[in-house]
Structure formats: structure tokens, C-alpha cells
Specification:
about 200 residues; seven-stranded antiparallel beta sheet; four-stranded antiparallel beta sheet; 3 helices
Length: about 200
């Protein structure tokens, strides 16, 4: 994969500290984690770094709010779930400004971004940005907003929602798809890129 090195979209892990204990307190016994209390779990920074090593495609997920206004966000946590019935899933943070609208929606669309859509991915990942300039929206037959020129567009009806930690997993039944030529946009190690030239398809 070829990549550029833009500013990371993922915020840095918060730092934590603790008050010093009594001078006589014994030091923790070293373990496989270098002395950190294993009961605490994996360090958030390590977990983020590990997940950054997983290359993923980039999508924009869209719906309409109760008042009809468009809503959308950028995601890499998207994948197919089932062939029969055709299901996909996408994960959305509870802290996202779009969360209340997606938590109430009954349908949504997924636009699979092409390598030329890095600016679109950044726009839909930027809090407070005008993600839907007037006159620049494309729509599905069901009038959901989508990214024009995306290499794949999926129209989904909500199948289920599941709370999982600080995210909600949205599962959608795919009702329609539209395809277009192009190379995918990829996110890896906190940078956008695309597939390196060469054969990509398995025989």
C-alpha cells in the first residue's frame, strides 16, 4: 500500500497519573507486561497502535435526521456480516455528534470511498464541519445522501443495534447496491493511502 502521512484522525491517548503511595509500599512484581498491573487490561495507547496496523477501507455512512436534514460520518470499522440475508455492520462512537440521529434512524447508506476521496473522508471526520454543502449532494433512490462517484454505494435498512463499550454496532440489511470503477481509499497506521500497483485479485 502506498500512503501519505496526514495528521492523524485518531486523538492521542489521554495521559493518566496517580498519587504517590507510602514510601514503604513494595514495588509491583514484574510480569509479562513489564510491571503494569495485568488486571487493568491493555494500555489504551498500545491498543490504538495495534489497531492502526490493520489496513482498512474507508466509508462514509449517511442518513437523515428526524427533521430531514442529512447526517454522516467517516468510518473504517465497516464490514460484511452475512450473505443470506445480505448484512453489513458499522460501528459508531457514542461521542459522535451524529450518534443521536443514527441511533434513531431506520435506514442508512454506505459509500465506499475511492482513493481520490481523501478530502471527503477528512470532511466527514471533522466535528462541526459543513458536510453537506448546498447543491453538492447525490442521493439514493430512497433519497438518502451518498458520496457521488463512490466505488460502491449500499442502501441499508436497519436490522439490529448492539451496544458494545463506547460504540454502537449498527447492522443493516442491504436492499440495493451500485458500483463504479476506481481504486479504494485505504487507512493504515493513521495515514490515508491506496493499494500499490500490481495484481490484487486472487486467482
Amino acid at each position: 500500500m502506498t500512503s501519505r502521512s496526514p495528521q492523524a484522525l485518531t486523538a492521542a491517548a489521554p495521559t493518566t497519573g496517580s498519587a504517590p503511595g507510602p514510601a514503604s509500599a513494595p514495588a509491583p512484581a514484574p510480569g509479562r507486561d513489564g510491571g503494569r498491573d495485568a488486571s487493568i487490561g491493555v494500555d489504551p495507547a498500545d491498543f490504538r497502535a495495534a489497531m492502526a496496523r490493520f489496513a482498512a477501507g474507508v466509508v462514509v455512512v449517511t442518513t437523515r435526521a428526524a427533521d430531514g436534514s442529512p447526517r454522516g460520518f467517516t468510518a473504517t470499522s465497516f464490514c460484511s456480516l452475512s450473505l443470506d440475508p445480505p448484512l453489513v455492520l458499522v460501528c459508531l462512537s457514542h461521542s459522535s455528534s451524529s450518534f443521536p440521529d443514527f441511533d434513531a434512524c431506520e435506514e442508512f447508506a454506505v459509500s465506499i470511498l475511492r482513493r481520490e476521496d481523501e478530502a471527503v473522508a477528512r470532511l466527514f471526520a471533522t466535528s462541526g464541519a459543513d458536510r453537506f454543502p448546498d447543491g453538492e449532494q447525490a442521493h439514493t433512490p430512497a433519497l438518502l445522501p451518498v458520496v457521488s462517484g463512490a466505488i460502491g454505494q449500499l442502501d441499508c435498512t436497519l436490522h439490529a443495534r448492539h451496544r458494545a463499550g463506547d460504540h454502537t454496532i449498527m447492522i443493516g440489511r442491504v436492499d440495493d447496491v451500485r458500483l463504479a470503477p476506481g481504486e479504494p481509499l485505504v487507512y493504515y497506521d493513521r495515514a490515508f493511502g491506496t493499494l500499490a500497483p500490481g495484481p490484487h485479485r486472487a486467482p
